[in-house]
Design a protein that fits this description.
By secondary structure, the chain is mainly beta. The protein has one domain. Helix content is about 5%, strand content about 50%. It has 2 helices and 10 strands; from the N terminus they run E-E-E-E-E-H-H-E-E-E-E-E. The strands form 2 sheets. Strands 3, 4, 5, 6, 7, 8, 9 and 10 form an 8-stranded antiparallel sheet that branches. A hairpin with a 3-residue loop joins strand 4 and strand 5. The chain is elongated, with a radius of gyration of 27 Å. The N terminus and C terminus are likely disordered.
């Protein structure tokens, strides 16, 4: 952002695939919301801006630990599924801070991560056995069978002679992240020098959509986020001086399994057809 603070244009990543927004809740000391006509220091903010201040170390040692677990035994079965699929979600973390030099230098570190393995119900139109037989008869190649292997048989009742049917079932969903926030403070030159950093690499693998997708065609998001801030505040009499520097790096990639599919052998040559 133009004010020198590394920021994020939104709380969540693209399509909200991350579960730790901006920073860990264990690292938040204060929150400030500015809306309406915002000052110039909050550049690139139209509707408003949210400022989060990282906790700092003190002359006393302090820390915290937490663990959150949610499994299939603690969750109800989805209405559209005939059985409860396996599910597990662990969210864990902690914080630790204290003095590097009493009354002069301090540090604070917070770490949070999660591991989620669950599923979501999806429905899709898939080829019936009749259509599979017709496709293999018309195109008797290994590539045809490889393509059909991506689609399961229908699970719902189909009409006689139908070429497609409905498949309903669970598709796997996996998410994880390891997020770290840190802050260092040093009192120097009658002022306070503060440096903070944030890093994380959330990822998500899930069906491309709730309709028209399959568990054999997942979509995956991977990202890397890094933010660094440094500020120096000095006060003398009635005057206050503040200098800020910020660096923000965010990389997001999306991959669909179907877009990376490759044939099992080299393409074959078909005979050319000339008009009569």
């Amino acid at each position: 952002m133009p004010n020198g603070n590394a920021g994020s244009p939104s709380l969540s990543q693209y399509q909200g695939f991350n579960k730790i927004d901006v920073m860990s809740s264990e690292a938040v000391a204060e929150a400030q919301v500015v809306k309406g006509v915002v000052p110039a220091e909050y550049g690139q903010a139209m509707a408003g801006t949210l400022s989060l201040i990282t906790k700092s170390g003190t002359n006393d040692w302090h820390g915290s630990l937490f663990e959150r677990y949610e499994g299939a035994a603690l969750s109800s079965k989805d209405f559209f599924l005939s059985s409860q699929p396996e599910s597990r979600w662990n969210q864990f973390g902690g914080s630790f801070g204290g003095p590097l030099v009493k009354k002069r230098a301090f540090f604070f570190i917070a770490s949070e991560g999660y591991r989620q393995q669950t599923s979501k119900p999806i429905t899709s139109n898939v080829p019936t056995l009749l259509l599979r037989q017709q496709m293999l008869a018309a195109l008797p190649f290994p590539e045809t069978q490889a393509l059909l292997d991506l689609y399961p048989l229908p699970t719902q009742t189909t009409a006689p002679g139908a070429l497609t049917g409905s498949w309903l079932g669970p598709a796997p969903k996996k998410a994880d992240d390891d997020h770290v926030d840190g802050r260092f403070d040093v009192q120097a030159f009658t002022g306070n020098l503060s440096a903070t950093f944030t890093t994380g690499h959330p990822s998500l693998v899930f069906p491309a959509s709730t309709s028209g997708s399959l568990s054999t065609d997942p979509r995956s998001y991977t990202s890397l986020t890094k933010r660094y801030n440094a500020s120096f505040v000095m006060a003398r009499g009635r005057y206050t001086s503040e200098t800020r520097f910020g660096y923000n790096y965010n990389s997001v990639s999306r991959t669909d399994a179907s877009s990376t599919w490759t044939p099992r052998r080299a393409p074959i040559s078909l005979p050319s057809v000339s008009p009569a």
